[in-house]
Amino acid sequence: xxxxxxxxxxxxxxxxxxxxxxxxxxxxxxxxxxxxxxxxxxxxxxxxxxxxxxxxxxxxxxxxxxxxxxxxxxxxxxxxxxxxxxxxxxxxxxxxxxxxxxxxxxxxxxxxxxxxxxxxxxxxxxxxxxxxxxxxxxxxxxxxxxxxxxxxxxxxxxxxxxxxxxxxxxxxxxxxxxxxxxxxxxxxxxxxxxxxxxxxxxxxxxxxxxxxxxxxxxxxxxxxxxxxxxxxxxxxxxxxxxxxxxxxxxxxxxxxxxxxxxxxxxxxxxxxxxxxxxxxxxxxxxxxxxxxxxxxxxxxxxxxxxxxxxxxxxxxxxxxxxxxxxxxxxxxxxxxxxxxxxxxxxxxxxxxxxxxxxxxxxxxxxxxxxxxxxxxxxxxx
Length: 381
Known about the structure:
Elements: H1 17-24, E1 41-47, H2 52-57, H3 63-66, E2 74-75, H4 82-91, H5 95-98, E3 105-106, E4 112-114, E5 119-121, E6 125-127, H6 134-137, H7 143-149, E7 153-159, H8 166-171, E8 176-180, H9 183-194, E9 200-206, H10 208-216, H11 221-240, E10 245-250, E11 256-257, E12 264-265, H12 270-273, E13 276-282, E14 285-290, H13 295-306, E15 310-314, H14 315-320, E16 339-343, E17 349-350, H15 355-358, E18 362-363, H16 369-372, E19 373-374, E20 377-380
Parallel strand pairs: 1-9, 1-10, 7-8, 7-9, 12-17
Antiparallel strand pairs: 2-19, 3-4, 4-5, 5-6, 10-20, 11-18, 13-14, 14-16, 15-16
Helix pairs in contact: 9-11, 10-11
């Protein structure tokens, strides 16, 4: 499939960012595969939803950021969704090892875990923070934990309401949590971290561009106005960065505009529903968990129904293709769908269990270039 952009394996993907920055500080045990400037302190600002193609296409709204674009983007990995990407960034590992394999995925009690709320989506929604703690679901040591153990001043500058959340505990354990309330907080925290004596590493997050892209569509006027605000935020930090510091601006995925009225609907289409036990993932990248013995039938039915609008394959085929990284652990394998469906162009697969998500104007999750390629914008050094 010429529209599929497979995850990267040459050291320029999201799992490589934090180890590379620590390597650029000269810390033992970390290798810079990306090629950052040597530095004393570093910060990563992740702008949720800012795909490489979106930034290039809307350069007039973000002239400072667009001026930093190069011909070598990062790849986000699979699926191209916030939960998976942030955990890949935070652990330095792909989804096949860290195990957060989608927006929702199968959990041990037979339901679907929604990692953003760390709640199960089964017959009833219930918190799993105690029954399946994030540290058990994702037990590998994070890069932030490794950096803190090596003596690095590690900080996490994310919205204050994320403190103690399941995703924070799973992906971003380690260092000092610095809750943010507005853009001014975020800019000041990044500068404070960059101005330390070093070695120092700060992770910062901005989520409103993704929010407006989902609600209004990427490229809409609200989205473009928010992009302009992000541009000014980064420019203001760049103006005050001290020598010996590096700021890397990245994203977790891109986004495409969709028309919910043209969606495939699993709940009303018996061809798609027959033999399906659970439907996970998200609208453009579905994990399809089948009833026992129904894999072949479900695979054939979905392939016939979806046709050229996407790619339908078994979970084992996706694993063999390296979509979840070079290693998929035995613990993680049951979380991957028996059948996967990734959509082309602007198609989505809707479910009544997700009325809000299925109605969004902007979506992501698949492996098109618009969703897979994210910018790597580097300042300082």
